[in-house]
Amino acid sequence: MPFPTVTSAWPAALSIAGPKPLNLKSGAWRTVKIRTSNVGGTATNPGTLRAKTLAGVLVKPEKQQLPVLLPGGSYTLGVQVELTKRAKKKSTLSLSASASGANTGTGSVVLKLETER
Predict the structure, then answer these.
(1) Which domain range does residue 85 map to?
(2) Binned average pLDDT, 10 residues per bin, the chain of 117 residues
(3) What is the pTM of this model?
């Protein structure tokens, strides 16, 4: 009698690796690279990356599509950010990556407003 095979594949899980804190001038757009990885044991379905905006922070686009990620795979997206005059000296941009059947990943990017001298 054969032994039953046990497959213990972990479910797909998304992870976001944000960059170091960024120093930005008011009124200038800057591209921020966001790396999303699948740290789970199975492939993800297509998903989305969302950026939650704050007062004084403009983001485009706020929502982007993620492709299918194999286990251990990653994908880098560019998000454009601008700080307006209403921005605080230090703002935190919240990010979330989600796909159906996968654990949601969250991350953040600290945006520092450069003071003009």
Answers:
(1) 13-110
(2) 60 88 92 93 94 92 95 94 92 93 91 81
(3) 0.84
Query: Which pLDDT belongs to residue 6?
Result: 47
The Cα 14–Cα 110 span in angstroms is 20
The pLDDT of residue 48: 96
Give the β-pairing of 105-113 and 22-24: parallel
Please report where in the chains the tokens 């939650």 appear, as a residue.
Answer: 52
Quote the CA–CA distance of 3 and 115 in Å, as a whole number.
Answer: 68
Long-range contacts of 8-12, Cβ-Cβ distance < 8 Å, separation of 24 or more = 9/41, 9/42, 10/40, 10/41, 10/42, 11/40, 11/41, 11/42, 11/101, 11/102, 11/103, 12/38, 12/40, 12/41, 12/42, 12/43, 12/44, 12/45, 12/69, 12/71, 12/99, 12/101, 12/102, 12/103
Q: What is the CATH number of the domain that holds 77?
A: 2.60.40.10
